[in-house]
Amino acid sequence: METPAKAASEIAISALREKAPAAIELAEEFARAGFKLALVGGSVRDILLNRLGNDLDLTTDAHPEDTKKILKKWGDDIWDVGIRFGTIGARKNNQVFEVTTYRSEIYTDDSRKPTVAFGKSIEVDLSRRDFTVNAMAIELTGEVHFIDPHGGVRDLLLKILKTPSTPELSFGDDPLRMLRAARFSAQLGFAIAPELLVAMSQMSDRLSIISAERIRDEFVKLLMSPNPRSGITTLVETGLCEKFLPEIPMLRLEIDEHHHHKDVYEHTLTVVEQSMALEERLDGPNLIARLAALLHDIGKPKTRALIAGGGVSFHHHEVVGARMAKDRLKKLRFDHHIVEDVSKLVFLHLRFHGYGSGDWSDSAVRRYVRDAGELLTHLHVLTRADCTTRNQRKAETLAKHYDHLESRIEELMAQEELLKIRPDLDGHQIMEILGVSAGPSVGKAYDFLLELRLERGPLGESKAREELINWWAKNQS
Q1: CA-CA 20 to 30 A from 407: which of 34, 124, 196, 317?
Q2: Number of structural domains, the chain?
Q3: What is the pTM of this model?
Q4: Beta-strand relationship, 305-306 and 191-192
Q5: Inter-CA distances, 156 with 141, 162, 189, Å
Q6: What one-character DSSP code corresponds to residue 307?
Q7: 230 lies in some domain
């Protein structure tokens, strides 16, 4: 009787021949040069999950320079930026192939860079990989066959993450694997084996030797997964999140019997999910929107105050939170524009609620659009996602008010260029009318005209000139 593992291996080999025949061709080139080549890791896993993409990972006993020679003759173009880690990349027929020499990566106790050793055995290479579902290979040279020394097919069928060696050894070799466990769980919907969760909790301090850039990249993959709640929950419960994003576990505020308030941590995870449900407005999954949803309330623990007689306040938590978000994202080495955009959204996320009843004047609409700028749609998504009340009537009222705001924006957009609000006169015209040269007085005049434009809409040059002269006369006396 055919075993599930045997059936899976046959499916994988058949799918590879159909979807990536170029890999078989490349293997023939390696064989002619006297080397072995195997599809490995995530590519094998993805074949079995029927989600193989255009990027394929392969491993070989050839050393990097030999690999480079073979790929140079075979590929459309090649690159060797990863050569010191044994990896050479090539593109052929719109597919990307990354070929890595058999290796093991080991971190010393205090090093941020792994020691890379090349080997001659694919079995040793697979034993040093992160999880059993990523420790499978399809040998492509000679007789094509499936290699699964650690039961990866079994664990794939069971949808569980285990390590080929003990989790302590695996996470000790590369502590980033602890974050990868949370990420793969969120991406694939797999459970994490209990012994891995124990090791993640006990070894969380080891994350300190990993660079901020590697942590950031892994966390971004988790956050952009189909189920970031699952991954974030794992990071918080194991103590890993505290090591690089402590603001999130700090949202688990105490609630006593006299000062009730919403669970900020659970609220935040719900906002992330509700933000994801609105992402079609942003043309698909959006990192800035998800980061803003995750960080929008991180100022609450620092601004929490108990109100006499019961209740809790978080005055100005958006201001404090914006500063905290900027600091944390900088430490994680996010790009400047991401840092600025996310902190701006955190700062603005309560702006809608400041208008209360939903009766929006033209001036209020202009200011809202002006402040949001190019992030207006992001702010729409965040503000709507931030409503997690269980009170159906309250939720419907808030949604109705926001519908009204968006319709008011559309109305004014049709009449004015709201996203490009400028005074009716530019700096050169101001200097000419007032007879002054460039300096602070021109900036003050410009700000006056801008406020006038926001308050009253387009004035036209004639009226703006009149208002400017009157303002100048009053401020010169």
Answers
A1: 317
A2: 3
A3: 0.84
A4: unpaired
A5: 25, 10, 11
A6: P
A7: yes
User: Are the CB atoms for 178 and 161 separated by under 8 Å?
Assistant: no
DSSP 8-class letter at 161 = E
In a domain, 260, yes or no: yes
Structural domain that includes position 74 = 4-242
Provide the 10 A C-beta neighbour count for residue 396: 11
Do residues 105 and 119 make contact, with C-beta atoms less than 8 angstroms apart? Answer: no
C-alpha 128/C-alpha 169 separation (Å) is 9
d(CA 55, CA 13): 17
The dihedral through the CA atoms of 334, 337, 340, 345 has a sign that is: negative
Tell me the pLDDT of the chain (477 aa) as tens digits: 567 667 877 888 888 888 889 999 999 999 999 999 999 999 999 999 988 888 999 999 999 999 999 999 999 999 999 898 899 999 998 899 999 999 866 666 666 566 677 877 899 899 989 999 999 999 999 888 899 999 999 999 999 999 999 999 999 989 999 999 999 999 999 999 999 999 999 999 999 999 999 999 999 999 999 999 999 999 999 999 999 999 999 998 755 444 445 689 999 999 999 999 999 999 999 999 999 999 999 999 888 877 776 677 787 899 999 999 999 999 999 999 999 999 999 999 998 876 656 567 888 888 888 889 899 999 999 999 998 887 888 888 888 888 888 888 888 877 766 666 777 778 888 888 888 888 888 788 777 788 777 777 777 788 888 877 888 888 875
Q: What's the rounded Cα separation, in Å, for the pair 81 and 75?
A: 16
Cα–Cα dist 59/237, whole Å: 35
In a domain, 182, yes or no: yes
Structure tokens at 89: 């990349």
**Long-range CB contacts for residues 26-32, cutoff 8 Å, separation at least 24:** 26/58, 26/70, 26/74, 26/92, 26/97, 26/140, 27/140, 27/141, 28/141, 29/70, 29/73, 29/74, 30/60, 30/62, 30/70, 30/141, 31/141, 31/142
Cα–Cα dist 264/300, whole Å = 8
Query: Do 8 and 128 sit in the same domain of this protein?
Result: yes
Query: In the numeric block, which tokens belong to residue 130?
Result: 């992160």
Considering the domain architecture, whether residues 198 and 323 belong to the same structural domain is answered as no
Do 349 and 469 fall within a single domain?
no
Q: The CATH number of the domain where 359 resides is what?
A: 1.10.3210
Give the tokens for residue 227: 């189920």
Examine residue 250 and state whether it is found in any structural domain, yes or no: no
Q: Are residues 291 and 234 in the same domain?
A: no
Let me know if 308 is exposed, middle or buried by CB neighbors in 10 A (0-12, 13-18, 19+). exposed
CB atoms within 10 A of CB 151: 17
Residue where a domain terminates, one of 242, 267, 300: 242
Q: Which residues pair with 313 in a beta bridge?
A: 305
